[in-house]
Amino acid sequence: MIEPESVSAPGSAPAAHHEPDGNAAPADSRDMYAIHAMLRRELADLPAYVAATGAGDGGRAEVVADHIDFVALILHAHHEGEDVLVWPKLAERAPADAAPVLAAMQADHAGIDRGLATLTGAAASWRANPDAVHREAVVDALRELTPVVEAHLKAEESDALVLIDTCLSAPEWGEVGMHGIASLRPEQYPLFFGMLLHDLDPELYGVLEASLPPDLFAQLAVSGPQEYARYQRRLAAAA
Fold this sequence. Notes:
The protein has helices at about 30-50, 60-85, 85-95, 100-130, 130-165, 170-180, 190-195, 200-210, 215-239. By secondary structure, it is mainly alpha-helical. Helix 1 (about 30-50) packs antiparallel against helix 2. The longest helix is centred in the middle third of the chain and has 36 residues, at about 130-165. The chain is globular.
């Protein structure tokens, strides 16, 4: 079983940047692209899983609703880590003209949290009452949330990552990843890493590989995809 403290801080050292933490290496936020790719894929796939669940099929609705909750948990934990550990540091260290970017990031998170609350509430109602009306409410919530998330991810990639790499150290960036991992139960780690590694660009795969101890990554590189494949089969059967 993998424990949170056994997972090292993500982020390997890129080319020279400002080093805010003494002699510490600067942050390497390229692993953010891997998280974003996973979130985009899972959110894009969800409406089909929901729509393909037959009215009145409570067992299958529960499987899909559980997946909605898991994706929502990952997205919320990812943003919570930034709210607690990234934006406050950037507000202190980044140039003054970065203030609008930071304000936009935090406003986006607040809007996404509202959308997640709507989505998970609709999923809970659908789980309890798996009829067509509640099913369509979940689809509607997904259709409203997904473009909001996509707009935020694009803005973060274009405007915020350079600030992270310039103003945060690798250990500080690692704390953000640890915050997200700590929100999961230990038995969920293989599934999370399997989702993260699935169809990942080779360069980003290498970034993640460099961020973990070799033995741990070797374990996750096998157990993660296997667990995610089983999970996908269960979702497909549910739909």
